[in-house]
Design brief:
By secondary structure, the protein is α+β, with helices and mostly antiparallel strands. It has one domain: L-amino peptidase D-ALA esterase/amidase (4-Layer Sandwich). It contains seven helices and 17 strands. The protein has a six-stranded mixed β-sheet, sandwiched between helices. A hairpin with a 5-residue loop joins strand 16 and strand 17.
């Protein structure tokens, strides 16, 4: 089996998405202070799952909350904490991603994690943020194999280094666009007039459609679905997109930013199916000047300056999806189901025929 780290990212094979500059590593951790950790759970022939943790900063997030918003593309999902995020415009815990039936256990473990942090001894309410996609084609999802041990491992593993991509963490058992999906990431640097700030994206790709890369019908020319099951049919759906920036945005414009991310998915061939839970969460690590009694909003990015951010998040989301597919490896799982990795050389040949490379 090909090792995951042997597989390229999009730019390694000449897929350059959009005109905007990337961050130094072209990942979500280009946003200063942000950390990502994974715990991958692979056991026997049928457990293929995990959990991914995104920390806006490595301090006490409950005490030092960050502005945030959630946009729902299609609500067929189990996104814990959504209503309070949109009501108050902030998040107070790390963001955890996992599989559908492990959401409850993961949320409980995240609450315990927050309560145990020094300084939180008097906390009596916590709004855990947990997103999910369904990895039940490859994974024994009914076994609920992600709990407190796995959650704590992902949180301990969180680092500001570029995160692993492909079949790791919450992307271990996922499928997207007819191929093995997973975790992918990318970033964009904003222009100097916006302070050269960063926008970073991390996706948990697990959605349907026919893969398109920069307009080229890759999925169609590679003969469609590469998902093998006993019935030969597999309807896939759901995606979580996490968007981070160190630009000073309020929750209203963060929601606008999150909504634009769906346009980046559409460029890849994404279809928001009936049973697809499509969630987009955006947060800012930079808050406006909030000195005692100061309610001025002069430091926030103005509405008329948002277009460059919209362009940046669309480009980064599109590229993050490609990275999730390119870095993932072929995986077998429950009931001898197989999800094949996107083949690199045939993909290059399709792109060359369409003058993309």
């Amino acid at each position: 089996m090909q090792k995951q780290n042997d597989r390229p990212r999009a730019r390694d094979i000449g897929i350059n998405v959009g005109p905007l500059a990337t961050g130094p590593a072209n990942t979500i951790t280009d946003v200063p202070g942000l950390a990502v950790g994974h715990e991958t759970v692979i056991r026997g022939q049928s457990v293929r799952t995990g959990v991914t943790a995104i920390l806006p900063h490595t301090g006490n997030i409950f005490r030092d909350k960050v502005p945030a918003a959630v946009y729902v593309g299609n609500g067929f999902g189990k996104f814990v904490g959504l209503s309070q995020v949109n009501e108050l415009g902030e998040i107070e815990t790390p963001i955890l991603l996992t599989n559908t039936l492990s959401v409850g256990r993961v949320a409980d473990a995240l609450i315990d994690y927050v309560l145990a942090i020094h300084g939180n001894e008097d906390v009596g309410s916590v709004n855990p943020i947990v997103g999910e996609t369904n990895d039940g084609f490859l994974n024994d999802i009914r076994g609920k194999h992600v709990g407190s041990e796995e959650v704590n491992a992902a949180l301990r593993a969180a680092t500001t280094n570029p995160p692993e991509e492909g079949c790791v963490g919450a992307g271990t058992g996922t499928i997207a666009l007819g191929f093995k999906g997973g975790i992918g990431s990318a970033s964009r640097r904003l222009p100097p007039e916006l302070g050269s700030k960063m926008i970073g994206v991390l996706v948990q790709s697990n959605f349907g459609g026919s893969l398109t890369i920069k307009g080229a019908p890759v999925g169609t020319e590679l003969n469609g679905s590469h998902i093998k099951g006993a019935d030969g049919v597999h309807e896939v759906g759901s995606v979580v997109v996490v968007i981070a920036t160190d630009t000073c945005l309020d929750s209203r414009n963060l929601r606008r930013l999150a909504a634009r991310s769906q346009h980046g998915l559409a460029r890849t061939g994404y279809v928001s199916e009936n049973r697809s839970g499509d969630y987009f969460i955006a947060f800012s690590t930079l808050k406006r000047n909030s000195l005692s009694g100061d309610s001025r909003m002069a430091n926030y990015v103005r509405n008329e300056d948002m277009t460059p951010l919209f362009n940046a998040v669309i480009e980064a989301t599109e590229e993050a999806v490609y990275n999730s597919l390119l870095r993932a490896t072929t995986m077998s799982g429950r009931d001898n189901h197989v999800a094949e990795a996107l083949p690199i050389q045939p993909t290059r040949e399709v792109l060359q025929r369409h003058n993309i490379l």
